[in-house]
């Protein structure tokens, strides 16, 4: 999904809906609830997306794009190597910390949000592979296979969104991502 050009009012509605989804999740939200809470008509919502599922998918896609853009910006402020990779992970963690645990449960209920998660995971995978290859070429890290290590990092990142794993570990999603960043620093650290 890609952000379509929207009016100022449509952007405002999407921003407000993003805040609702981040703080509450979305499974409980019906179109009638949204029109009431967002002070808009059904037609206004359906101008943004053809269905409730597509609208939620669009909002989740916006969230994912914003998180990745933030992580890239933060990673760019570090020199190539393990710190850049860890900063990327920590930056995603920072953004994820504002999301209610319910969002991760709800994201598994719709095809549109599962697709968004898969697309954003693939995008993050490409970023991690790029950072790993860059650091490997420079001789800054030990990493025989950047593609495999990126898949391990993403598996760890998925676990930071799994409420059952977090509950069993007794940590928050943000704490879990910090643990993952610590693991990265020691696991792929300097040669």
Describe, in plain words, how this protein is organized in 3D:
- The protein is mainly alpha-helical and 191 residues long.
- It has a domain at 59-187: Tetracycline Repressor, domain 2 (Orthogonal Bundle).
- The protein is built from 10 helices and no strands.
- The protein has helices at 8-24, 31-38, 42-48, 52-76, 82-96, 101-107, 111-137, 146-159, 163-169, 173-187.
- The protein is elongated and about 55 Å long.
- 32% of the residues are buried.
Please summarize the sheet with the most strands.
Answer: none
- CATH class designation of one domain: Mainly Alpha
CATH superfamily of one domain: Tetracycline Repressor, domain 2
**Share of residues in strands:** under 5%
Can you tell me the CATH topology of one domain? Answer: Tetracycline Repressor, domain 2
In whole angstroms, the N-to-C terminal distance is 40 Å
Overall number of strands: 0
N-to-C order of helices and strands: HHHHHHHHHH
Structural class: mainly alpha
- Overall geometric form: elongated
Measured as a percent range, the helix fraction is: over 70%
Oligomer: single chain
Let me know the average pLDDT: 89
How many helical stretches? 10
Q: What radius of gyration results from the CA coordinates?
A: 18 Å
Keywords:
191 residues, 0% strand, mainly alpha, Tetracycline Repressor, domain 2
Briefly summarize what is shown.
With 191 residues, this protein is mostly helical. Helices cover 74% and strands 0% of the residues. The model has no long low-confidence stretch (mean pLDDT 89).
């Amino acid at each position: 999904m890609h952000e379509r050009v929207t009016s100022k009012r449509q952007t405002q509605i999407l921003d407000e809906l993003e805040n609702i989804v981040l703080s509450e999740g979305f499974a409980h939200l019906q179109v009638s609830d949204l029109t009431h809470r967002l002070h808009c008509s059904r037609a206004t919502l359906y101008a943004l997306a053809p269905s409730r599922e597509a609208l939620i998918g669009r909002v989740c896609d916006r969230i994912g794009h914003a998180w990745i853009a933030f992580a890239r910006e933060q990673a760019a402020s570090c020199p190539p190597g393990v710190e850049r990779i860890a900063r990327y992970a920590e930056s995603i963690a920072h953004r994820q910390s504002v999301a209610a645990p319910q969002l991760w449960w709800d994201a598994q209920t719709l095809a549109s949000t599962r697709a968004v998660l898969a697309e954003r995971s693939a995008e993050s995978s490409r970023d991690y592979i790029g950072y790993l290859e860059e650091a490997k070429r420079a001789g800054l890290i030990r990493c025989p296979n950047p593609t495999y290590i990126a898949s391990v990092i993403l598996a760890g990142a998925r676990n930071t969104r799994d409420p059952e794993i977090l509950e069993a570990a007794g940590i928050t999603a943000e704490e879990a991502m910090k643990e993952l960043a610590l693991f990265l620093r020691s696991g792929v650290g300097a040669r």
